Structure formats: C-alpha cells, structure tokens
Amino acid sequence: MAAEEQVVWKADSNNIYERFIEQLDEAMSGEKELTEGDQDTRYALKLQQERLREKGTKLRYHITPRGFTSNGQNLPRKWKDKHYVSEVAYYTSMWERDIAVGNGRPFRQKSKMTIYETKTDVIGGVNVEDEIYVCPGCGAPSKIKDLLGGCQYCGSRFQMSELYPKITSHYLVKDFSFAGNEMKYYLMKFMIGTGIVILIGMLIGMASRGELSPLRIGSLIGTILISAFMGVVMGYFLASITLLFKLFFEAGKTVPMMGAIGAGKRFEAFMKRYSPEFSYEYLTGKTVALLKMIMFAKNPQELPFYVGAPLGGRFQDLVDVIFRGAMGYKGMREKDGYLHVTVDVFLENAYVTNGRVRAGVNEKLRVTLVKNLNVPIQYNFSIKKLECPTCHASFDATKNKTCPYCGATYRIEDADWAVESVTVM
Length: 425
Description:
Layout: H1 2-5, H2 16-27, H3 39-54, E1 57-65, E2 73-80, E3 84-101, E4 107-122, E5 132-134, E6 141-143, H4 144-149, H5 160-163, E7 166-174, H6 182-208, H7 217-254, H8 265-271, H9 280-296, E8 318-335, E9 338-353, E10 356-372, E11 386-387, E12 394-395, E13 418-424
Antiparallel strand pairs: 1-3, 2-3, 3-4, 4-7, 5-6, 8-9, 9-10, 10-13, 11-12
Helix pairs in contact: 3-9, 6-7
C-alpha cells in the first residue's frame, strides 16, 4: 500500500492537460492556484472553496495515472469561432477524495475515473490583441495587447503563452474497466482470502475432532494444498459473482441515463446552421460548468447568467459535484429570436448536513438554457470579462450586474448561454 501511495501525477511541462490535473490535486483544498484553468473555472472553484469554509469542511483530491490512456487521448472533434479553437482530451486515472468535517475523521472514497478536459487556444496566425482578457495579476479586465505591454492597473507583463491556452471545462466520469494487472490483483485478493478462510476452517474442524495434535507434516502439507486449491476455485467463483453483482448494481444506476445516449444529435444539427463548428460536447461542458457555479453560489440569482427563480437553499449543503458523463437532450423552442434548450444532467453529489457527510448522492437536474440565436457563439466567453454593448467598457460581471461605467443592464443571453431554470427531478 505504501508503494501505491508514492505514485504521483508528474506532469509533462509542455502538456497543459497534465499540468491542470497536477494542480487540481491541491487546488481543491486551496493549497495551490489553478493557473491552468480559465477565469470561469477558477471562479467556480472559488465559490466551492467558500462553501467548504462555510461548512467547516476540508476537501482533498489525489489523482494518480492508471490504465492504457493515462498518457492522454484526444477526441476527434473540435469546435471553433473566428479566433479560438477548442478540443477535448481524456485521461484514465485513480481518483481518491477525502471529505473531513472539522477535526473529524475524513470520509474517504476511491474510484477509477476518466478525466475529460476542454482546452481553448488561439487559432494560429490570428491576431487577438484587441480581445478582452482578465489580468492574471490583479483580475482587472484588459485588452490582451495591454497585458503583453504591461497591465494598466498593476503593471504586470505577460507572454501570450501565459494567457492561452487554458482549460475551459473539465469533469470526471467513473471508469469500470480493468487495465494492466488490475484484474489479476482483483482475482488474487479473492483467491488468497478464500484459501486462508478454508485453511483456518479445516484446522478448526480438525481440532474439534481431536485430529490436530497428532497431525504430521504430510497431513499438514496436504491440508494446505487442499486449502490452496479450493481457494483458487472458490475464490475465482466468488470474485466473478461479486464483479457480476457490482456491474449489475452499477448498470441499474445508469438505466435512467440510457436515454441520454446520442440524444443531442438533432439539436447539434440544428445549431450547426448558426455555428458550423458547434458540438454537443461543448454544450455539455458549458452546462456542467454553469451548474457548478449556480449550485455553489450563496445566492444564485446574483450570478449574471442565472435568470431563473430562487432555488430555496436546495444546494446549501452541497460540497462537491461529480458529473456522471451523461446529458440528455429533452427539447428546444424558439421565441422572439431566442433559443430555449432543455437538458437532463446526471450528477453524483456530496453533501455535508449537520456535520455528517453524504456522498454518492445520484441526482438528475432538468436544466433549461437560453441564448440569442442572432449572436455568434464565442468559445472564449467569460463572465469575468464582459464588454458593455452600450459604452464598450470592460467589467467583471461576477461583481457587477450592470455596467459600472454607464449603468446599462447586460443580458448574458445576448452573448452566451444563460440558465433560466434548474429543477431536481
């Protein structure tokens, strides 16, 4: 076990996906800055950390590489606008999570996970110097050319490689496959354990019959061999039955998600009329990212992209969210130039209620999003760097719901996706 704990994710310094995973280990607990994430990813993490402090809870991730794609694999699909391109890569890993309330003993989970990450970068040869970006030094929205020459607020200078690429969304999905020697170790645990139980049982039986004291070496060896043989046979049988029941159990939990498979193709085909590079994977990552901010916010209605009704403290005890890898498309409607899309998002949540941890809570959220169809999708959009459509000043919408310079009201749905309803099904 000690040797297993020494395995760490040592990132390739040239690979942003691996650098992000390496940072995520300690960023969850606030020990390290999540510099490889974009502004909205860091803001969502900030909201989660505020929730953890409010609940007197410490959360720690430990992610180690495992499996055939621990070195990463890119999905074949990309999406882009005129300036930016996004793509997804996934990594197989062993994921451990500790949730500790106060000074109590941590609630610990360990599971095989696949990590999906979306990277957004500038398209080669495109000049984005007049685009808005949040200064990594002081957090003020500025033009990229100002940050390259020196932020007008804090004086920090940056290279383009420090601003892009960034990880713009990520989520973890449970992995039930066996890789490398994992199946062998799984079977051996059952075989050795069963063999020991059978040997002890045989020795206890012999002792009760008075056959143990005169037991000779030959008889003892025979007893051990019989126990070993029975351990292999019975252990293999028990391991197979246990694995079968586990798979049936997990399959039962995924039945509600079956309708989500391939459900977004019709919607994707519709959206391609407005954005030829549109991808359902993009909308999935965007929706999960928005949901995390809504669920962790103290008052979701203060978020610029949530235009729905109050949630009544439904998620006030939530401390962590795991996306289960499925988002089902339920329908869409057009009204007055706005598109309203309804999806079902499947999550596995962790709550802390009255000092007690409840993890592994499977929930389905029905979410309706809205967007102005006449405005092109911006794949680098961020609520941290809005540009006022009236006076064209830049500001942080997480701090201001109206433009601080001219007072104009800003509607997120006129630039990007907004959430107009969240219902727990």
